[in-house]
Write a structure and sequence with these properties.
It contains ten helices and nine strands. It is globular. The chain has helices at 7-19, 35-46, 65-70, 75-84, 95-98, 120-123, 127-142, 154-167, 196-215, 219-232, and strands at 2-4, 24-29, 50-55, 89-91, 146-150, 172-176, 236-243, 257-267, 270-280. Helix 7 (127-142) packs across helix 8 (154-167) and helix 9 runs antiparallel to helix 10 (219-232). Bound molecules: pantoate.
Length: 284
């Protein structure tokens, strides 16, 4: 596995690979790698891509400095895992090259209006601007044929898809299924901050989504069931929503067909999100 830090070396490496006829698969991460990230690497390898993984804890997507400080950092373990999973090149860019103005605000921002302002975006202003800006830069420097993102961050996936469409980036965005622990908890780098009791509370998120899926609609019944399940477990509910998967607009009880149920909640100080596909039927 090649290791790269400097932006020029990173750009050249990618150019060389493309020049040699390889298709690059980009797996963008903030480190603290887990099986969810492994599934992205595996998907890129299954497609025969030359896999470039980036690890960069992007301060622009944290609107809470405490959250940024608390974000887990496990560089040695990440490098070992990337190598063992067959990542071809690991890029760990430095702040001075990613955001030269930092810690002052970066003048250039990519913003996906609408999609980035609801759900997670409503409670975390600027979060998706930070995500869209960093993903745009990673994609511009890397020039991948495909970029892999987990469906766990469903809104992020929608924002990235829209940004790629609107900016005309020549990259296929590949969404990969959520990876869960045996007890149903969706894998997240934040899960390491959950003690045993908190973890039990956190399971109410996937349980709530399971209930919503079993209901088969309408949307309002799903919302109510999800919220009640999480509240009963002592989770501070951020949202329990049923939305159109592409526009992320909340659906009413007239909506039928495939939709996405999304939940967010704070469990003993740790903010968690989860989602699943659901099927809506018309209400009585
Ligand atoms: O999903 C993440 O880990 C981050 O939001 C991403 C896509 C690497 C951008 O910093």
């Amino acid at each position: 596995m090649q290791r790269v830090v400097g932006i020029e070396q990173w750009r050249r490496l990618a150019e060389d690979q493309r020049g040699a006829g390889r298709r690059i698969g980009l797996v963008a991460t903030m480190g603290a790698l887990h099986r969810g990230h492994q599934s992205l690497i595996a998907a890129a390898r299954a497609n025969g891509d030359y896999v470039i993984m980036t690890i960069f804890v992007n301060p622009r997507q944290f609107n809470d400095p405490t959250d940024l400080r608390a974000y887990p950092r496990t560089p040695e373990a990440d490098r070992a895992l990337a190598e063992s999973m067959g990542v071809d090149a690991l890029v760990e860019p430095v702040m001075a090259e990613m955001w030269p103005a930092y810690p002052d605000p970066t003048p250039t921002t990519v913003s996906v209006a609408g999609l980035g302002d609801v759900l997670e975006g409503a409670g975390r202003p600027g979060h998706f601007d930070g995500v869209a800006s960093v993903v745009a830069k990673l994609a511009i420097v890397t020039g991948p044929s495909r970029a892999y993102f987990g469906e766990k961050d469903f809104q992020q996936l929608a924002v990235v898809r829209r940004m790629v469409l609107d900016l005309g980036l020549d990259v296929e965005v590949v969404g990969c299924p959520i990876v869960r622990d045996d007890d149903g908890l969706a894998l997240s780098s934040r899960n390491v901050r959950l003690g045993p009791e908190s973890r039990l509370r956190a399971l109410s998120l996937s349980r709530a989504l399971g209930l919503a899926g079993d209901l088969d609609g309408p949307a309002s019944a799903m919302r109510a069931a999800m919220r009640a399940t999480m509240e009963a477990a002592g989770v501070v509910v951020g949202y329990a929503e049923v939305v159109d998967p592409a526009t992320l607009r909340a659906l009413d009880d007239d909506a039928v067909g495939r939709a996405r149920a999304l939940v967010a909640g704070v469990v003993d100080g740790v903010r968690l999100i989860d989602n699943r596909e659901v099927e809506l039927r018309r209400g009585p």
